[in-house]
């Protein structure tokens, strides 16, 4: 039981670190969480370090990965 809890915490930590960055698609003007399956497309070459930075650049959140601002 204790092992399961530890494993769960490790996964949660990984998930949080994956959310650290965002990737913008310069052609569609959408941005993705780096973990999104569309974040590796050929036009996804713009990097953002925050949700607000992506929004300020005129990008809209992807409807698949739904990037959200961090608190
Ligand atoms: Zn996405």
Outline of the structure:
With 71 residues, the protein is of the alpha+beta class. It contains two helices and four strands; from the N terminus they run αβββαβ.
Could you characterize what this model shows?
The chain is an alpha+beta fold. The protein has one domain (2-61). Helix content is 32%, strand content 18%. The protein has two helices and four strands. The chain has helices at residues 2-18, 51-56; strands at 22-25, 30-33, 46-48, 60-61. It has a four-stranded mixed sheet with strand order 3-1-2-4. β1 (22-25) and β2 (30-33) form a beta hairpin. The longest helix is centred in the first third of the chain and has 17 residues, at 2-18. The chain is elongated. The protein starts with a helix and ends in a 10-residue tail after the last strand. The mean pLDDT is 87. Zinc ion is lined by residues 32, 36, 38, 62, 64-65.
Question: In terms of topology, how is this protein built?
Answer:
Layout lengths: L1 H17 L3 E4 L4 E4 L12 E3 L2 H6 L3 E2 L10
Parallel strand pairs: 2-4
Antiparallel strand pairs: 1-2, 1-3
Bound molecules: zinc ion (ZN).
